[in-house]
Design a protein that fits this description.
This protein is mostly helical and 240 residues long. The protein has 9 helices and 2 strands. It is 69% helix and 3% strand. The protein has a two-stranded antiparallel ribbon with strand order 1-2. Strand 1 and strand 2 form a beta hairpin.
Length: 240
């Protein structure tokens, strides 16, 4: 009787030990592929069929196979779109440049939360109007600043010229206007005004010299010769 009780006790302990190793309800092959041979064969046939369709040329397929191939490629494309890429390739509209430093900063965050390439592009597209508006706002601010700076420059040039011409302002400007009207084209006058040279003291002083030259009539052999029809080069460098 003593030996029998010992055996029962030993058997009980063994069963308990087994329960600790393999809890009730757990599979003995936990973590391993539990597909049946039939399932495995079906999968292999499916993969073989997909390979046949994707590698075949369309002209070698029947209409039914072409339809299957199209559906297969569509499904694969959809599956790829759900994959988080290693690197995000963002497209931006023409006229915009990608901020690579911003993209590099956001990439770890996007990957952590599982944003796909397609979703990242949608986010960029959604923010593009905002970036476009900010860019336009910045462009207008720069343009306004440039216009204000140019206006300040013109006013400074005008003041400087008037101060240096002093009381001779009207007389000297009349000579400048005479040369301008006689020898400068409307396009040249427009360029001078646009550049600010039309208010520059040194430049106006040079034009004044030309104006005085064409205003002087010279007496040669009893005949009066006017410089009004001569070019600036002919006035400055007369033939000897």
């Amino acid at each position: 009787m003593t030996e029998i009780k010992t055996d029962v006790a030993q058997n009980t302990n063994t069963a308990a030990d087994v329960e600790k190793v393999v809890p009730v309800g757990d599979s003995a092959v936990d973590g391993q592929d539990t597909k049946s041979s039939l399932d495995t064969a079906v999968d292999q046939d499916r993969l073989a069929e997909e390979k046949r369709l994707t590698e075949a040329k369309d002209e070698d397929l029947s209409d039914e196979d072409k339809s299957k191939k199209a559906e297969l490629l569509k499904a694969k494309s959809a599956a790829q779109a759900k994959v988080v890429p290693e690197k995000y390739e963002i497209k931006v509209p023409e006229g915009f440049s990608k901020d690579m430093s911003l993209l590099e900063t956001l990439t770890p965050v996007l990957k952590e939360i599982g944003v796909t390439g397609e979703q990242a592009q949608k986010l960029a597209d959604a923010y593009m109007p905002f970036f476009k508006a900010k860019a336009e706002e910045g462009r207008k601010a720069v343009q306004l600043e440039q216009e204000q700076n140019f206006k300040t420059f013109i006013e400074s040039e005008k003041k400087n010229t008037k101060e240096k011409f002093g009381s001779e302002w009207n007389e000297r400007m009349s000579f400048i206007a005479k040369f301008r009207d006689a020898h400068l084209s409307p396009k040249t006058v427009e360029l001078l005004n646009a550049s600010g040279l039309a208010e520059n003291y040194e430049f106006l002083s040079d034009l004044e010299k030309f104006g005085r030259l064409i205003s002087e009539d010279k007496l040669i052999d009893g005949k009066r010769v006017s410089n009004a029809d001569k070019t600036p080069a002919e006035i400055l460098f007369p033939k000897t």
